[in-house]
Amino acid sequence: MEIPKKGLIDLHVHLDGSLSFDMARELAKMQGMEIKSEEALKRLMVVPSDCQDLNDYLTKFDYSLELLQTEKAITYSVCELLKIQKAQGLTYSEIRFAPQLHIRKGLRQEQVVAAAVRGLQGFSSSLILCCMRGADNQALNLETVEVAREYLGKGVVALDLAGAETLFPTKKFESIFREAGRKGIPFTIHAGEADGPESIWAALEFGASRIGHGIRCLEDRTLVRRLEKDKIPLELCPTSNINTKVFKNITDYPILKILDEGIKVTINTDNMTVSNTTVRRELQLLADTFHLSEIEIGHLIKNAEESMFENKK
Ligand SMILES: [Zn+2]
């Protein structure tokens, strides 16, 4: 079947993983940096077929982050990404990034977020601010929560927790999300991707209203029932999970099982450039591999519509 060309939604897309090569070149030019060749950009920003795991995948963000350290660069990249998403038939997106990764040249997190908000033009989109998994960044994460509160309803719709799941387990970040809860900021958390069901349990205990990935919930029956009963949306990103070797091939991807379980799932890109994909491509891949019907695809799109943070203001 053919995927609709309009009305698509991406609820899980990282800004730094989704800069097009044109954007990367323009950003380099803007900042007097070396303009890289197509080949070099591919090597720096797109995951190779022999990618080892999530930690390996995360190295593909280094160059983009180098380009995104000024207010002008951040505003430009959000604005350009929206143009691309609009051209791809999206009607809404929630773009996420970690303000604390954009402060290397002296910006404050508040300035980073203000610059991103200025980029939200001409298209219906919102921002999700990521806290980062790390050993010694508690103060930076708390600052992200503060800034999210300040901009909630003014471009920002939620918080997230991103980074290396197995190195820094979800449960270590409880105080951050308790604080978010106290401040009334909704959040999603990357969980059940590289790490197992216990990371999803921790996210739910903190009060997450969505789960980033969450595909490994299938390893725990009680958890599956809980997600289904509470209608907690999962932000699935199939190609990204193949890249990071959560599953070897797309044919191993348990979409039919997860749909059978009645869990509310949405289909997203994660990183348009790193994973070389679009929402339409992700849906097409699932439709082709698993012979999904028009009704099933329509259902996945509707799930995304119903799971937007914007609806929960
Ligand atoms: Zn992600």
Write structural notes for this entry.
The mean pLDDT is 95. The strands form 2 sheets. Strands 1-2-3-4 form a 4-stranded parallel sheet. With 313 residues, the chain is an alpha/beta fold. Helix content is 43%, strand content 14%. 47% of the residues are buried. It starts with 7 loop residues before the first strand and ends in a 7-residue tail after the last helix. The protein has one domain: Alpha-Beta Barrel (TIM Barrel). The structure holds zinc ion. Zinc ion (ZN) binds next to strand 1. It comes from Frisingicoccus caecimuris. Keywords: Hydrolase, Metal-binding, Zinc.
Helical amount: 40-55%
The assigned structural class equals alpha/beta
**N-to-C order of helices and strands:** EHHHHHEHEHEHEHEHEHHEHH
Straight-line N-to-C gap:
35 Å
Provide a count of the helices: 14
- In CATH, what is the homologous superfamily? Metal-dependent hydrolases
| Mean of residue pLDDT values | 95
Rg: 18 Å
How many domains would you count in the coordinates? 1
Return residue spans where pLDDT drops below 50 for at least 5 consecutive residues: none
Bound ligands, named by name, code or SMILES:
zinc ion
Sheet with the most strands: spatial strand order = 1-2-3-4
Which key terms come to mind for this protein?
313 residues; alpha/beta; TIM Barrel; 4-stranded parallel beta sheet; 8 strands; globular; binds zinc ion; metal ion binding; EC 3.5.4.4; hydrolase
In short:
By secondary structure, the protein is of the alpha/beta class. Helix content is 43%, strand content 14%.
